[in-house]
Amino acid sequence: MSRARRGSPPWVWGSHSSPAAAGGAARARQRGAGGGPPHPATSAAATSALACPEPDAGSDGEARETTDPSAVPASETTSPEPLRIGSILPTTGTLAFLGPPEIAGVDLAVNEINAAGGVLGQDVTITHRDSGDTTTDIATQSVTDLLSQNVNAIVGAASSGVSKTVINQITGAGVIQFSPANTSPEFTDWDDNGLYWRTAPSDVLQGRTLGSYIMECGAQTVGMITLNDSYGTGLQGNIQETVEAAGGQVVANEMFNTGDSQFSSQVDAVAAAEPDAIVLISFDEAKSIIPLLTAKGIDPSTLFMVDGNTSDFSADFDPGTLEGAQGTIPGPFTGTAFQDALATVNPDLTSYAYSGESYDAVTLIALAAEAAGSVDGTAIAAELEGVSKDGTKCYDFAGCVTLLRDGEDIDYDGISGPISFDENGDPTEAAIGIYRYDADNRPQPSRSEVGQL
Question: What pTM was computed for the model?
């Protein structure tokens, strides 16, 4: 199938596309004395001479184009059964911080769909279950429960490692698995009967973006601490490839495993390599690793993080601990209009990571069901690529379903970007948000990089 390339929707603000710069000023270093106990409170550390681009998050931008749900025409095709959606999103485990915004995105989409009359004459139902992480079997139990309730699609998991444990169970049952946050490149070619889809871009894009950005900041040498799973090693490989292609060098890459609780050896090895920049690829383990890095005197402005750990640490560390550190999260900045809408389902949200991708996953499933005239998982999957491109642009369920019921082909552009699926269920273009930590250890929007795959 052909793959049309779409431009950025109106809510991708402050977008930039800059080539990596291999050069950089000489690094001024401030070295401590050696010796002392095995894990001293202070050690050799670099005083940052990085010169990253100034923040440019753009404005909160335009509101999405929306349609009055009461104006949506009734469906001429009705289904005897409702569209049943389940979710396996993390409420426990190392990615539990992603659960609230993802669940809120799902619930907001379901509310908007049902306000517009639902799908094929029926309200959509949603059943949430926990995914846990790879140290437990919670995801398998949750999927078994959801399949017993005859769901047509399951949104999740957030973790690529968790999705690998259940993808065959879900797709083998003829049910769509639609992840808002899986970024492992392994899913692109997975034998999934065409039933696995995702709104998050492959880590090929996040890795390229972060690697290029680090080089643009002027780093020449990079140290890495990496989670040893499909997510961590895939992201690490793409960052390293980009850094080396731009003339940089990865001088250390220290691995750890899920469930590990001691990270001193990895931190010691990376600090000893004295890199210009340090990349931390982890999940919740960052809460243990970051204090070890700062105890070594590592300047936080030389620390770069990823979507698995770019979260609010205001309750975990002393003020200023992470000030100047940066991290990437796939997706454009959501803007206040969408955040206000999310507050109607969860007013306590402090993070919005993957909320847009979750919202878009549910909206796309619903639109594809309308296009198929069926809630069957295989029938829905056959329409997902088509509703994401090559038609009249629309930006919410009410507007898009109105076009469908008027006989028009549609191109849904979502909160998370243009999407434009390929035949593998991957979005072919996406934005990567770059966040910079403030003095309260909260990530703030800094820049947005738009790229294509």
Answer: 0.79
